[in-house]
Automatic annotation (TrEMBL):
It is found in: Cytoplasm. GO terms for biological process: carbohydrate metabolic process. It comes from the Eukaryota. Pfam families: PGM1_C_vert_fung, PGM_PMM_I, PGM_PMM_II, PGM_PMM_III. Residues 16-155, 192-296, 324-419 form the Alpha-D-phosphohexomutase alpha/beta/alpha domain. This is phosphoglucomutase (alpha-D-glucose-1,6-bisphosphate-dependent). Its EC number is 5.4.2.2. The keyword Magnesium applies. Keywords: Cytoplasm, Isomerase, Magnesium, Metal-binding, Phosphoprotein.
Length: 561
């Protein structure tokens, strides 16, 4: 029996503008009649030429509203002429896994249902993101097109009678408007696990955990009730044979157990506490959709994400994938600490500084100029896919520990010994009022044109810095020449220290101010110092330069990482 699709009349909604990583709003907003349908139609219409007859991947982090959204997407893809959908079982696919499946199955792209590290549940956030055929987040040109369509949309197409059970793996065939339409429900972890086994030497990691060449390494992995639970179970418990107490919170929950599924020292406090007790030698946590990671050593020794990517880039000899493919270039997002730049210099490879957001790495990878990259926001990855990848980062770290026969702390000390240490911290002021924050950014922007600030001395608590340059970061993509402007205010000091201010593009309401502070030390006696102590004077200088407390009305940040 052929099903029939219909055109439904609708009106535009304001603000369907994808941010740093997709459209994120409160669940209540997505539940508004036609809201989700409108945005899905914008995604499909933006694909125009490549839509009819194509295949797409659909999956998400399992948060509240995911299943409903999958159902809408299936009905709308069928009505818009898509030939086939690959849907994760129960709608579950991590963000890196979506990227992996898009590439392996050569689909035209994928739709990812997640608000990443934002909390989930009926009163929290939901999000929809589109990834293109290379497996990476849609670039600005594509998201701008979606946004433009959202401003004038008058109708969408849907096949309301189509019923599809996504709880069982297998293929279901439909006929819609006399066209064939296939939904293949896929194992949420299968393809991804196979790929990880190609990239890494699982035997070496197994030996490390078992202690074949010394003490067994006890690990503690916290999936924070996000999407990585099934991946952690399959990879760490079943494939690598870690003991059952090595993994916690591995059942995905629609509300992440009421927590922020955000792997940092504040929101992954339970992991930090457990690690401090000293039984485990390695700890890690992931965010809701599995693209972020936090790495901890014995007694919760913290590895900053900026250091983590630099260490991985410096130790590629222990990862079979890089031995096979080589390491072309390295990259980081602009606010990320510059440790990786030093590794690139030593290795004699290119290093790129791109705006915040993984979408800016894709072109460089596709052009064969980028192998490993990261963001200070707990994102680490490589050109094995086109998303940052939390599980990959943990496997990379375990490979390095196995290869070097060192602890996490020893690896860092050795790294700093070679390169010096880039101390880094980020202050977040979440959910502030938008208007004053915009004013603060405008005031900072005006400083770019104030020549009298260049050379100005700023002092606090015995530390003095000289302003070398203030600018608003702009980036020209070396591959396609596209330009991204106003990507963050940078205050560059004469000694290489930096302060950066940005407004977040992932919040669902209000404004979140991010302040990034970095300073480099070559003196080994500083290496074991607490980053907050070392950076305190520069933090105070930055706060007063921006009049941040006055504009935001906040005395303290919400989160320090
Ligand atoms: C934040 C991070 C950015 C990251 C983005 C998406 O963006 O700063 O580095 O790429 O989240 O990560 P913003 O605009 O809020 O600073 V995820 O794991 O939330 O998809
Ligand atoms: Co994420």
């Amino acid at each position: 029996m052929s099903l029939t699709s219909y055109t439904k009349a609708t009106k535009p909604f304001e603000g369907q503008k994808p941010g740093t990583s997709g459209l994120r709003k409160a669940v209540k907003v997505f539940e508004t009649e036609h809201y989700t349908e409108n945005f899905v139609q914008c995604i499909l219409s933006a694909m125009s030429g490549s839509l009819t007859g194509c295949s797409l991947v659909v999956g998400g982090d399992g948060r509240y509203f995911c299943k409903k959204a999958v159902d809408i997407i299936i009905k709308m893809c069928a009505a818009n002429g898509v030939r086939k959908l690959l849907v994760g079982q129960d709608g579950i696919l991590s963000t890196p896994c979506v990227s992996c499946v898009i590439r392996q199955q050569q689909t035209a792209g994928g739709i990812v249902l997640t608000a990443s590290h934002n909390p989930g549940g009926p009163d929290a956030d939901f999000g929809i993101k589109f990834n293109i055929a290379n497996g990476g987040p849609a670039p600005d040109a594509v998201t701008n097109k979606m946004y433009d369509i959202s401003k004038t949309i008058v109708e969408y197409r849907i096949c309301p009678e189509l019923q599809c059970d996504i709880s069982k793996i297998g293929t279901q065939e439909f006929t819609v408007d006399n066209r064939p339409f296939t939904v293949e429900v896929i194992d949420s972890v299968g393809d991804y696990v196979t790929y990880m086994k190609e990239i890494f030497d699982f035997g070496a990691i197994k030996n490390l955990l078992r202690g074949t060449n010394g003490q067994p390494l006890k690990i503690l992995i916290d999936a924070m009730h996000g999407v990585t639970g099934p991946y952690v179970r399959r990879i760490f418990l079943e494939e690598l044979g870690a003991s059952l107490n090595s993994a916690v919170n591995i059942v995905p929950l629609e509300n992440f157990g009421g927590h922020h599924p955000d792997p940092n020292l504040t929101y992954a406090a339970d992991l930090v506490k457990a690690m401090k007790e000293g039984d485990f030698g390695f700890g890690a946590a992931f965010d809701g959709d599995g693209d972020r990671n936090m790495i901890l050593g014995h007694k919760a020794f913290f590895v900053t994400p900026s250091d983590s990517v630099a260490v991985i880039a410096d130790n590629t000899d222990y990862i079979p994938y890089f031995k096979k493919h080589g390491v072309k270039g390295l990259a980081r997002s602009m606010p990320t600490g510059c440790a990786i730049d030093r590794v690139a210099e030593k290795k004699g490879v290119e290093v790129f500084e791109v705006p915040t957001g993984w979408k800016y790495f894709g072109n460089l990878m596709d052009a064969g100029r980028l192998s490993i990259c990261g963001e200070e926001s707990f994102g680490t990855g490589s050109n094995h896919i086109r998303e940052k990848d939390g599980i990959w980062a943990v496997l990379a770290w375990l490979s390095i520990l196995a290869g070097r026969n060192m602890s996490v702390e020893q690896v860092l000390l050795s790294h700093w010994g070679t390169y010096g240490r880039n101390f880094f911290t980020r202050y977040d002021y979440e959910n502030c009022e938008s208007a004053p924050c915009n004013k603060m950014m405008a005031a900072l922007d005006a400083m770019c044109d104030d020549a009298s600030l260049v050379g100005k001395e700023l002092s606090h608590d015995g530390k003095t810095y000289n302003i070398a340059k203030i600018d608003n970061f702009a980036y020209t993509d070396p591959i396609d020449g596209s330009v991204a402007k106003k990507q963050g205010l940078r205050v560059l000091m004469s000694d290489g220290s930096r302060v950066v201010f940005r407004l977040s593009g992932t919040g669902s309401s209000g404004a979140t101010v991010r302040m990034y502070v970095e300073s480099y030390e070559a003196d080994p006696s500083t290496f074991t110092k607490d980053a907050q102590d070392v950076l305190k004077p520069l933090v105070e200088i930055a706060l007063s330069l921006a009049n941040l407390k006055e504009y935001t009305g906040r005395q303290e940040p919400t989160v320090i990482t």
